[in-house]
Amino acid sequence: MTASPDSTQAPTFERLELAPALLQGVQTLGYTHMTPVQAASLPAILDGSDLIAQAPTGSGKTAAFGLGLLHRLDATRTETQALVLCPTRELADQVGKQLRKLAFAVPNLKLSILCGGTPLQPQLDSLAQHAPQVVVGTPGRIQELLRKRALDLKKLRTLVFDEADRMLDMGFEEPIREIVRATPASRQGLLFSATFPEGVREISRAMLRDPVEVTVEGGERHGSIEQRFYEVDPARKTQLLAALLLQEKPQSCVVFCNMRRDVDEVAGSLAYYGFTALALHGDMEQRDRDEVLVRFANHSCNVLVASDVAARGLDVKELAMVVNFDVPHDADTYVHRIGRTGRAGSDGVALTLCGPREQGRVASIEEREGAPLNWFKGTPLSGKPSSVPPAAMTTLRIDAGRTDKLRPGDILGALTGDAGLKADAVGKIDVFPTRSYVAVVRGQAAQALARLREGKIKGRKFRVNRL
User: How far apart are CA 358 and CA 370, in angstroms?
Assistant: First the structure.
């Protein structure tokens, strides 16, 4: 079965047979009309069909499968009825937060986020109290909990594979198959993927029954994306990248590398040239990854060098530029990468550095684009530049968080009160369970750090450091 979205219609959620509590969640999130992926997939999901959907980030897919799994839920039963598998902890956190918002009016609902990179014992303790009706997690941790008999999926009604292509890229096929074997044959299966390599097709054939197929080309409304290709000697890619960053001066830029081992090397080279550049990849400790994402989102770092998988946890609304340090292995990945810029109606720039051996991959991109690509000549740096524009903000880390009853307003109050900063000198504030981060205008960071160390936040002294 195949379903295709009708781009001329934007139906409202009221047309669906949703419970009043779910309509309240939809209204609270400010949703009025369905996105194409929601309009194409929700009728089939609510009807109980299995689904395979090609949908990019920003298309509204989380609300689509979220409403579907919540619709099938019986909150009076304390058994796990829905499981969403995600490739990374960052994505699982995003999905979990959105599902909680959708389900805020559903009484007695327990939703647990169960991921690797976090302590196991608190998760075991929580599961021992009573089973969550909804679980969002990463395949490795879910597999571990199943083997410890801490999680029971025998009553599962809905199983969701979110960003299935990246889960396979990360080597999660074996855990996924083990998890599927622990679920009842009668459960509904929903698979969402930005790209559809043969591995995803194969796993969908094995795990879904006569699925409805939905393809959505675009997500949220995009501005124009200027695409430029540069032929360069592989040995001089980093020098050309630095020259292009100096020329363009983007407020924010993600540089994609195909190989995880290249991420640290490229980020280190850019830091040597004077850029505020950070690396993000799956080999990093979870706390370090969290801090990198915080610093990039709050403008304390303006160049992020990342692998495809790690960048899936990135949630930046206005990304000025994307650079392909390597030509992606397939055209779908290229489209997905550059689609991170030019969002919310803003224009974006996508640059691709191409060595002689990468021309074959470029040909597949040109075929996908359906038009000749724009080639440019660039001049690599010949030495270290005299000056590089710094990031606008600096991040301060406070060793206290939600467990200490700390709120963003408490931190803002301390900075604008005793520390003497104006409100417009304080940027994004992120509060985690045991630590908090606040962005401060770079020129006032030293003052803010000194004053916070001397003074108190909410009447208490906490350790404060500059990242």
Answer: 19
